[in-house]
Amino acid sequence: MLKEQKAQIIDSLQQLFSKCSIGILTDYRGLSASEMASLRRKLGESGIEYKVVKNTLARFAAERAGKDDLVSLFEGPVAMTFGYGDITEPARALADYIRTEKASLSIKGGFLGDRLLTSEDVMTLSTLPSREVLLAKILGGMQAPVFALLSCLTTPVAGFMRVLQTRIQQLEGE
């Protein structure tokens, strides 16, 4: 590979490291070409990139992007997953693929911003609900006391109105 090509690859990897919200490193040993294509297709549907990287070039890119802790993870065959939206989506997609396809793919670790993730951290992320679900739960928790207060305030008035309505019906019946 020419020096210019290597420099371009390092630059593009550095940009991916910088702009992604989460990156997950996997050991793809044992995956056939068709399984790799299937995994890329499944991840691509969710807007997630999956790239096989050369360790040396990836180390240089990680150092340039300020992710020096990642350098130790670039051992053996490594492919990287780059997620740009919800941070749980790439972890969930990889965990689902490993579980459903019974693939020999293994998660080595990853990064979330400047924080290094272990494989256990990535698997924990895969079990978390999505951002939208968490926001809905928070909003529901914030609304519950307001609705309870409203119910407490309107119940006596509603009871009084039922008593008045019943008395009106009694007087009309006489």
Question: Care to give the gist of this entry?
Answer:
This protein has helices at 3-19, 33-45, 55-64, 88-101, 119-127, 131-173, and strands at residues 22-27, 49-53, 78-83, 106-112, 115-117.
Describe the structure.
The chain is α+β, with helices and mostly antiparallel strands. It folds into 2 domains: 3-128, Alpha-Beta Plaits (2-Layer Sandwich); 130-174. The protein is built from 6 helices and 5 strands; from the N terminus they run αβαβαβαββαα. It has a 5-stranded antiparallel β-sheet. β4 (106-112) and β5 (115-117) form a beta hairpin. The radius of gyration is 27 Å and the shape is elongated.
Notable traits:
alpha+beta; Alpha-Beta Plaits; five-stranded antiparallel β-sheet; 174 residues; 6 helices
The overall pLDDT average reads: 84
Give the total of domains.
2
Poorly predicted regions are: none
Output the CATH homologous superfamily of the largest domain: Ribosomal protein L10, N-terminal RNA-binding domain
Helix % is 55-70%
Question: Main β-sheet: number of strands, strand sense, barrel status?
Answer: 5 strands, antiparallel
Number of helices: 6
Beta-strand segment tally? 5
Gyration radius, in Å: 27 Å
CATH class of the largest domain: Alpha Beta
Q: How far from one another are the termini?
A: 102 Å
- The CATH architecture of the largest domain: 2-Layer Sandwich
CATH T-level fold name of the largest domain: Alpha-Beta Plaits
Approximate strand percentage: 15-25%
The side-by-side strand order for the widest beta sheet comes to 2-3-1-4-5
Helix/strand/pairing category: alpha+beta
Element-by-element helix/strand order: HEHEHEHEEHH
**Shape label:** elongated
